[in-house]
């Protein structure tokens, strides 16, 4: 081969390799849930979203693709691989404010909010997030009592831990956004300690149940008792008014009789005696006798009054008949 031909072949091969290198390092693809950071001579330059993009070849520019649009999860206190759950005691075990040991498992939901901070301010973002979460949990639970942490205080502790974790991410500018933090379990270690605290929890729940039942009974009985008391009061008031009115009527009646009695005591006295006798002897028969001699003189007033009544009735009937006869003759 001629020297010129060999030279052309070498130049062509070098150009082909250069083109392949430029093509492989200058074009990159970003998926739907990803975003890319472009570094120019190692310094952050810009971000690109999903699609096919061009950059200057390395070492001028390089691209770092991160799942910035993807919501991610990490677990604290355990690791889960499919259906297999492996406890991590060095993360879950911690001491409470009353110097008891408690096991706390949590799940943190997060995503990347600032790619520049995420890539440059922390070397291992996931490990930093795991450590900061564990520190936040220990800080909050370390100030609480065990029985509060495993019963009524779980929700409050969860909110405090989330706020402290967000505060740490903002303080160190990690570029990580904390979406949520949920405790899976806050409980004492297994064995006798767990059984003892479970018994305490059951006793507390039974206590609350009895208190609620007592309050329900109280709310049921007190209104009824108040109603019954009000009814008795109203009945007593009605009886009081009735007796007062009756007493006032009796006084008025007595005063009326007394005023007439003062005018003519004898007549009033006789009338009262007769009215009293009529009340106590409504069907009595009256006899008038004279026992001053050996012979008893008897005056049958009842029969005389009866005969007088019969005679009066007969005379009235006769007078009516005569009037009718006279009236007929006139016609």
Description:
With 331 residues, this protein is of the alpha+beta class. Among the domains are: 64 residues, no CATH class; 118 residues, Tetrahydropterin Synthase, Chain A. 58% of the residues lie in helices and 22% in strands. The chain has nine helices and 13 strands. Strands 6, 9, 10 and 11 form a four-stranded antiparallel β-sheet that branches. Strands 3-2-5 form a three-stranded antiparallel β-sheet, with no helix packed on it. The longest helix is centred in the last third of the chain and has 72 residues. 13% of the residues are buried. The C terminus is likely disordered.
The whole-number mean of residue pLDDT values reads 81
In whole angstroms, the N-to-C terminal distance is 185 Å
Instruction: Supply the CATH class of the domain at 72-189.
Output: Alpha Beta
Described by the principal axes of the CA atoms, the overall outline is rod-shaped
Helix content: 55-70%
- Global Rg: 58 Å
Measured by DSSP, the beta-strand proportion falls in: 15-25%
CATH topology of the domain at 72-189: Tetrahydropterin Synthase, Chain A
Query: Could you give a short account of the major beta sheet?
Result: 4 strands, antiparallel
Number of strands: 13
Name the poorly predicted regions. 323-331
SSE order, one letter for each helix or strand: HEEEEEEEEHEEHHHHEHHEEH
- Under the CATH scheme, the architecture of the domain at 72-189 is 2-Layer Sandwich
């Amino acid at each position: 081969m001629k020297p010129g031909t060999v030279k052309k072949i070498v130049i062509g091969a070098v150009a082909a390799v250069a083109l392949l290198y430029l093509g492989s390092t200058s074009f990159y693809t970003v998926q739907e849930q990803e975003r890319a950071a472009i570094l120019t001579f190692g310094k952050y330059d810009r971000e690109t979203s999903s699609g096919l993009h061009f950059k200057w070849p390395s070492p001028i520019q390089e691209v770092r693709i991160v799942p910035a649009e993807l919501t991610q999860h990490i677990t604290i206190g355990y690791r889960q691989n499919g259906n297999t759950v492996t406890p991590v005691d060095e993360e879950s075990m911690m001491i409470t404010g009353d110097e008891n040991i408690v096991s706390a498992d949590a799940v943190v939901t997060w995503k990347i909010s600032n790619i520049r901070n995420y890539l440059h301010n922390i070397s291992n973002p996931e490990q930093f997030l795991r450590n900061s979460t564990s520190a936040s949990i220990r800080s909050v639970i370390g100030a609480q009592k065990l029985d509060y942490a495993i019963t009524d205080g779980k929700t409050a502790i969860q909110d405090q831990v989330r706020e402290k974790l967000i505060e740490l991410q903002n303080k160190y500018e990690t570029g990580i956004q904390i979406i949520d933090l949920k405790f899976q379990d806050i409980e004492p270690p297994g064995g006798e300690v767990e059984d003892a605290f479970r018994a305490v929890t059951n006793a507390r729940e039974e206590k609350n149940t009895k208190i609620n039942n007592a309050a329900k009974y109280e709310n049921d009985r007190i209104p009824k008792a108040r109603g019954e008391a009000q009814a008795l009061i109203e009945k007593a008031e009605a009886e009081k008014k009735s007796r007062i009115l009756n007493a006032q009527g009796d006084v008025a009646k007595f005063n009326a009789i007394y005023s007439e009695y003062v005018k003519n005591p004898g007549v009033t006295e006789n009338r009262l005696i007769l009215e009293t006798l009529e009340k106590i002897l409504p069907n009595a028969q009256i006899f008038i006798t004279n026992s001053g001699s050996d012979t008893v003189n008897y005056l049958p007033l009842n029969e005389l009054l009866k005969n007088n009544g019969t005679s009066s009735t007969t005379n009235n009937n006769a007078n009516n008949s005569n009037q009718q006869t006279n009236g007929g003759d006139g016609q």
